Amino acid sequence: MMSSTVLIDERSVVFDGHVIPGRWLRDHGDDPVSLNPETKQRLVDTFAIPRDVAPLAVRIDGGRLDIDWSDGAHTGHSISTLKRLVTTRRAPEVRPTAGFRIEGDLDLWSSAPGVSWFDLACLDDDETWQPAIEHLYRYGWVAFDGAELGEAASARLAARIGYPRACIFGTLWNMNSGSFEHADSAYESGNLDVHTDGTYSHDAPGTIIFAQQLKTGEGGDSVLVDGFAAAHDFQVAEPEAADLLTRYSVRAHYIEPGVHLVAERPPLRVNEHGVLKQVSFNNYDRSPLLPAADVVDDVIEAYNAFRAVFSNPDRALYHEWAPGRMLVFDNWRCFHGRTGFTGERHFKGCYTNHEDLESAYRLAGLTPLVL
After folding, report:
1. How many domains does the chain have?
2. Which of 258-261's residues contact partners 24+ apart within 8 Å by CB, and which partners?
3. Last residue of a domain, one of 21, 53, 86
4. Do 194 and 318 fall into the same domain?
5. How far is CA 139 from its chain centroid?
């Protein structure tokens, strides 16, 4: 077997003749400090990596490449993985139109609106349900109070939108702090960066329903951000970067015993008519994918710049929880996260499909019927 060659060229590493920017390698270590060995969720803070980070020393040891970095970090990389990545570099898709537009009578919120609470009893009557579904359509989320504990409330709310969607977490699932049922950052107690769910699914969940069952201690608020508003503002400020994120697909994965899901789509998914249909961004689950040499820095800059827009704290809506409260939001539009917490936090919940959400909007007279 032919041995690999590696050397340093300023802020890049030249691996078997392929120039790889150091900032990309610094973000894509597969050592235990950079990547959870079991779930393969990333542990490195992508967005804290200095733009001018540079490799100081490189070493090949068997099938591993080890790198010392100017910011004091050390990363390890599988040589076989690097060989595959450098020979399958990805160029952005060529699209007939640039940019995108947002359709519909939506209220794009760049600062947090107040939380409007609806009584869950509105599910039982079309007339009282109408303001709630209108709120969900206009803002991308709607909150309820007065729910009975247990699975029934989540099932009733899902039935108003479509039906609970079966997934690896179950159909009507539990999300309890400290649970070891699934190895995922959502079950931990620290801050959870805003993201969208199901980036590893070809058809990501359309809505997410949470219903709190138990809360002790402090913190643990849900955080929502209007991803469509953030995309709009990002396009206004940096049109070329925003357009690039409509054309470059990002791959994601979910791994646990017996499960290995992989899918990819652009962070800003636009249909053939130039309409923004979905924001898709979860840095925890992002897989290694090396852009073509002439756009690698542009892709990194665009990805980081969009995240800087939607993670601005001024955009965040904080949803305070108590047992009996519920929240449903459009996972194709809203980013969600969580503040850190102490004590226990137990939820019931489920996903529904986006086509069913769109059907509910048509039936409520919020979007035109397609005949």
Report:
1. 2
2. 259/168, 261/168, 261/200, 261/201
3. 86
4. yes
5. 18
